[in-house]
């Protein structure tokens, strides 16, 4: 059988071949395999130089100082480090977040809530976007941290973190932003976005899985309490031998993203238009999330009269995602779609299509035609 068309770039991206080549040079006996923390010989120095060069590349994409980048194992760990590490040591912390954050934020805040931390869960409107006024209205004198994502991974919509961050900074409230779906997809600039912590992931931007970073602002200086101890790497914020090959891969991937950001966004916008045009004549299709404020590569659609799971099974030649979770025998609809006010029934009818660097116009035309066929067939047998 022909390989299915991959339309799940929001779940993960393939590694760019140039990134894989670069990574390979840091693994083998004839390569730069040293421990970047080894101070006593050239193997260590070369590995350390590679790590610092990658730190520059990652910092550069978000206009940060390289000293503000802490390596982690991925955005999940970055979210944990920022949130747990920022509230640690506060007597009576209060966190504001939302119900449509990534599980790495939702579950971390829920765990802290069980430990006695007060958490306010904001609910966005149908467009999926938490409004600045909602955040400001939830602020209390003891509010320690606000955690919101820049781009939602299921809907693609963009939060106004500039407006939110400016107010939070004036009130002395820390601001964590999960930018795993934003970096490389839109302009991200910490010199104009007043955030204190920003989570980044390698594998959403054509880098490898298992590596990420947390941006921790230096001026004005903020601190996080380490959540992993042992050796004091990364200025004491995250211990553990640095995975040179992973880090070099993420650095290369971020450098590539920076060099092709605008062209790639334009290409994805064209593919999105082509995709939606291909579905234009199919009745009963609605777009979930904001149409106005969004990245181009994620399209979340509900199909009237068909169940998303059946549709996904029917779309045998497409690799897509429904955002639903299998909880034992039952399929739970996406908590993000429930979070924007969709009924269980409507949430069950949704699928997420996400495009990326290797998606072609032919694939998009094939995908929309395939969807029209399968939806029409499923509706007919109802
Ligand atoms: C993928 C993703 C994560 C998790 O990143 P990992 O590197 O896989 O741990 C966190 N937040 C968002 C918004 C994501 O899309």
Automatic annotation (TrEMBL):
Keywords: 2Fe-2S, Iron, Iron-sulfur, Metal-binding, Pyridoxal phosphate, Transferase. GO terms for molecular function: 2 iron, 2 sulfur cluster binding; cysteine desulfurase activity; metal ion binding. Its EC number is 2.8.1.7. It catalyses: (sulfur carrier)-H + L-cysteine = (sulfur carrier)-SH + L-alanine. It comes from the Bacteria. Its cofactor is pyridoxal 5'-phosphate. Residues 5-365 form the Aminotransferase class V domain. Pfam families: Aminotran_5. PANTHER family: CYSTEINE DESULFURASE, CYSTEINE DESULFURYLASE FAMILY MEMBER. Belongs to the class-V pyridoxal-phosphate-dependent aminotransferase family. NifS/IscS subfamily. This is cysteine desulfurase.
């Amino acid at each position: 059988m022909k390989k299915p068309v991959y339309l799940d770039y929001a779940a993960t991206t393939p590694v760019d071949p140039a990134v894989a080549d670069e990574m390979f040079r840091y693994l083998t006996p004839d390569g730069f395999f040293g421990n970047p923390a080894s101070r006593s010989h050239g193997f260590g120095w070369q590995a350390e130089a590679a790590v610092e060069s990658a730190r520059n590349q990652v910092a550069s994409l978000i206009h940060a100082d390289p000293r503000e980048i802490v390596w982690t194992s991925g955005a999940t760990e970055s979210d944990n480090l920022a949130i747990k590490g920022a509230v640690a040591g506060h007597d009576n912390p209060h966190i504001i977040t939302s119900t449509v954050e990534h599980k790495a934020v939702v579950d971390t805040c829920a765990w802290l809530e069980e430990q006695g931390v007060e958490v306010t869960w904001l609910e966005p409107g149908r467009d999926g976007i938490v409004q600045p006024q909602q955040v400001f209205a939830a602020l209390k004198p003891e509010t320690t941290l606000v955690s919101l994502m820049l781009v939602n991974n299921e809907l693609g919509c963009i939060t106004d973190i500039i407006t939110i961050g400016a107010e939070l900074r004036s009130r002395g409230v820390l601001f964590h932003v999960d930018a795993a779906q934003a970096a490389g997809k839109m302009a991200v600039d910490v010199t104009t976005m007043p955030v204190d912590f920003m989570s980044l992931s390698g594998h959403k931007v054509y880098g490898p899985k298992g590596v990420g970073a947390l941006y921790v602002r230096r001026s004005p200086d903020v601190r996080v309490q380490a959540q992993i101890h042992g050796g004091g790497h990364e200025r004491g914020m995250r211990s553990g031998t640095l995975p040179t090959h992973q880090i070099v891969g993420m650095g290369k991937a971020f450098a590539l993203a920076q060099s092709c950001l605008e062209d790639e966004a334009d290409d994805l916008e064209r593919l999105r238009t082509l995709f939606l045009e291909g579905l234009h004549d199919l009745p009963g299709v609605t777009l979930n999330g904001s149409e106005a404020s969004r990245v181009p590569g994620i399209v979340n659609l509900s199909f009237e009269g068909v169940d998303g799971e059946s549709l996904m099974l029917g779309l045998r030649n497409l690799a897509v995602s429904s955002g639903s979770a299998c909880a034992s025998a039952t399929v739970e609809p996406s908590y993000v779609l429930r979070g924007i006010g969709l009924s269980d029934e409507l949430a069950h009818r949704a699928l997420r299509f996400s495009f990326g660097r290797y998606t072609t116009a032919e694939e998009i035309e094939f995908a929309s035609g395939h969807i029209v066929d399968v939806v029409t067939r499923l509706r007919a047998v109802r």
